Amino acid sequence: MSWSLAVFAYLLGSLSFAIVLSRLTGRPDPRSSGSGNAGATNMLRLAGKKLAILTLLGDLCKGLLPVLIARGLDLPPQHQAWIGLCAVVGHLFPLYFRFKGGKGVATSAGVLLALYPPAALLAALAWGLTFYLTRTSSLAALIATPLMLPLLAWQRSAVLLPMAVLTALIVWRHRGNLRDLLAGRERHF
């Protein structure tokens, strides 16, 4: 694996578009407002559609770009997946923002899109359907993220371990949401 690319992926992942956009537009820090999460869903609550979409696209691209670079360097798919995971870890624990980041869903989607687009499409459809039916972003993420694993196991088994680690990290980052869902107090749109 290219360790320099893994470090680059982590540092790129550490760029929190929600925090940067909030600062640039004079909005409150998303880590201390709304749900307390530095991600697109909280940006939608705090700053509206435009900044939420920009946050989503920025977070998606920082997962996509390192994997595409790794592919361009002819690294094996498993190495591409580990490098993508480094970008997600950067998003979860950003060096530039005191290691307090988002939940990694959009960045993971970018990684998955670069690794195997059909699995990304399946996860996006599952997220969209769950969100449409429940109006709950966290539940949509908790259903969509693990759903991609069987497809990867069948079609891209070389990337299964890093993507299972990625899935476990996302579920772990949503543990508070999971408690709130079970208690019936999770926020809905």
Concise account of the structure shown:
The chain has 189 residues and is an all-alpha fold.
List keywords for this structure.
single chain; mainly alpha
Explain how this protein is built:
By secondary structure, the chain is mainly α. It has one domain (3-183). The protein is globular, with a radius of gyration of 16 Å. Helix content is 74%, strand content 0%. The model has no long low-confidence stretch (mean pLDDT 92).
Spell out the blueprint of helices and strands.
Blueprint: H1 3-13, H2 17-25, H3 40-47, H4 49-72, H5 77-92, H6 105-115, H7 117-134, H8 137-155, H9 160-173, H10 175-183
Helix pairs in contact: 1-4, 1-5, 2-4, 3-4, 4-5, 4-6, 5-6, 5-9, 6-7, 7-8, 8-9
Largest sheet: none
Provide the domain count: 1
Estimated structural class: mainly alpha
> What sort of overall outline do the alpha carbons produce when their principal axes are compared?
globular
Strand content: under 5%
Radius of gyration: 16 Å
Count every beta strand, where a strand is a DSSP E run of 2 or more residues.
0
The low-confidence parts are none
Approximate helicity band: over 70%
- Taking the alpha carbons of the first and last residues, their distance comes to 42 Å
- Helix-strand sequence: HHHHHHHHHH
Mean pLDDT: 92
Counting DSSP H or I runs of 4 or more residues, the number of helices is: 10
